[in-house]
Design goal:
With 110 residues, the protein is an alpha+beta fold. It is built from four helices and six strands. 28% of the residues lie in helices and 49% in strands. The termini are far apart. This is SnoaL-like domain-containing protein. InterPro entries: NTF2-like_dom_sf.
Length: 110
């Protein structure tokens, strides 16, 4: 198991349960998510972003690195069809809440 800050570990758990209400609660009210070429700001927008995520996918952490207060998670998405796709999640925290999340797919990190 990877050592993660509580908000990040709970984000992953809520994400894999498809529990949007709980997931959003780990973000600062003014947090920013940058993913899929779009920017979502605040709880309502992050709720909308999360609702766009496939419900048949599960997020697995393959590596964690901390650098200057940010957490870099290498992840693998698993779908019900046994497909897998690699992504990187970059979290920034403030006062125990997620203040910024950047999601990059494998093709974006090359």
């Amino acid at each position: 198991m990877h050592q993660l800050e509580p908000a990040i570990a709970q984000f992953i758990q809520a994400h894999n349960r498809h529990d949007t209400a709980t997931l959003v609660s780990f973000f600062d009210p003014e947090a920013v998510v940058l993913a899929q070429g779009q920017i979502w700001v605040g709880h309502a927008a992050i709720w909308c972003w999360q609702q766009q995520q496939p419900v048949n996918h599960r997020l697995e952490i393959t590596a964690v690195r901390r650098h200057f207060g940010e957490f870099y998670l290498q992840t693998r998405w698993h779908s019900a069809a046994n497909d897998a796709d690699d992504c990187q999640y970059v979290f920034a925290l403030q006062d125990g809440k997620i203040s910024r999340l950047i999601v990059q797919t494998k093709s974006q990190t090359r």
